[in-house]
Amino acid sequence: xxxxxxxxxxxxxxxxxxxxxxxxxxxxxxxxxxxxxxxxxxxxxxxxxxxxxxxxxxxxxxxxxxxxxxxxxxxxxxxxxxxxxxxxxxxxxxxxxxxxxxxxxxxxx
Length: 109
Hints:
mainly alpha
């Protein structure tokens, strides 16, 4: 049982790290603010959830696991709220999302 617990914990930690890394690459590769925020917010929330879940498995049933669950709840509530506030502030500042002007022939349709 202990081996299964450790393996599943490390799988969650590795997946969380991969999500965070992919989000960082997405922020560097995306063309404008809105797509960068989209890439960062989705992968940040999922990466943090997976990493904290992996650490909770390592902590076992203890006070530390309860504290980690509270941190996870806080992150899952505040991260999307902060992204929404940032997007609203950018929109109010006059930064408009780019419209898709590509034709169906360019998209391969």
